[in-house]
Amino acid sequence: MADDRVLWPGRSFLAGVGGTAIGALPAAITGISIDSRSVEPGDAFFAITGDRLDGHAFVADALRRGAAVGVIAADRRGEVETDGALVAVDDVLAGLRRLAAYARLRTKAKVVAVTGSVGKTSTKEALRAALSGSGAVHASVASFNNHWGVPLTLARMPKNVAYGVFEIGMNHAGEITPLTQLVRPHVAIVTNVAAVHLEHFPDEAGIARAKAEIFTGLEPGGTAIVNGDNRWAGLLADAAREQGATVIRFGEVADADARLIKFALHEECSAVTADILGETVSYKIGAPGRHLVDNSLAVLAAVKLVGADLSRAMMALQRLEPPKGRGKRHTLRIGGGAATLIDESYNANPTSMRAAIALLKQARAEGGRRIAVLGDMLELGPESPALHAGLLGPLTDAGVDRVYCAGQQMRELWKLLPRPMRGSYAETSAGLESLVDDVRAGDVIMVKGSLGSRMGPLVEALIKRHGEPSSGR
Description:
The chain is an alpha/beta fold. The protein has 16 helices and 22 strands. The chain has 3 domains: 3-90, Udp-n-acetylmuramoylalanyl-d-glutamate--2,6- Diaminopimelate Ligase, Chain: A, domain 1, CATH 3.40.1390.10; 107-318, Mur-like, catalytic domain (UDP-N-acetylmuramoyl-L-alanine:D-glutamate ligase, 3-Layer(aba) Sandwich); 328-466, Mur ligase, C-terminal domain (Protein-Tyrosine Phosphatase, Chain A, Alpha-Beta Complex).
């Protein structure tokens, strides 16, 4: 097998997970999987026990699909009916973490970690694109930012990449610390701190302190990049300095190290002029939104800090496109015309909801209406009713014509909507399916809600009824 396809030599893999081989150990591992449905030939399949499913029930299936080896808990061996190669460990997730730590130890890559209440995934994707012109980049897929997603991403990191980019999330205090200490970033970015997961925190300051945990894993001499425009910038900076880090601020604030000088927001892109660590630059971002403008400052600062090429990074940002569920645009065919669908369905909180409403305001409704389709924002605690009701102002300012609401929390907003703005209300997103027939040519429809509110199926229903999206955004 060609060396460039080998992720882990068999013996290194065994040492990394700290296990015992049962059967013939494969000479090489070419990938890591925790889902038997997507396993590839040559993968090591980790039988992780999750909240709903136990991976041990799928080991035999994974091996039949071509997995080179299954990693199981030693005390579950009797439950796994297969003659294929196995590695037994004390705990499967712990074995994955050990392999992740080994992957971090063997690489010479410059590593950047990203957290924040809003914008983690889009910033991670912008970093992936911006660094790719300067060398091979390994980054998290989707939003693999939790207790299994981070070690899985690390364990999949090839030895010889130039850069590693990791997204780190949390919804409770103490969750970021073990993940950042596994990743050991050279640069750690906090995009912002906002009223997210308030159900699990006494106040927003508690969220800020939890986000600041990312600095506890910084490599010696590492750098913290914090949002200078955020009210918690001082707390974050102090926490970073306590870890011996250099602090870089980004934003419009006068003393920002990565400072926004001017910008222009357009329907499908933005133009930016900024000072990035003493260098004045102008560039375009290929996806719309003020939040992307702000976070691009942190991205370009990180590019300079890890020694990558700034010019190539700016060219890459020009080609940036929003991912599915995070502002991706689709063109719907309706009669002899078209409507625009803005898919923001992946997740939501008060800050990201306002950003999505601002995107809707920027969009041109050519002879049609601006329509907001909103699902509950979850995990907001006692402040939830007020935070949902508080969306009326942004919706009105954005000139939104119709609002569709789904969920018990969104009822607080629905009760305040002027009658002409009311589209429809339902207890669940499934109850808003009349929207599929209500849209007209010229409309711009934005769909957003927390993942648990299941707004994604509405997006899929609109696309299914009105044709596949165009090849553009």
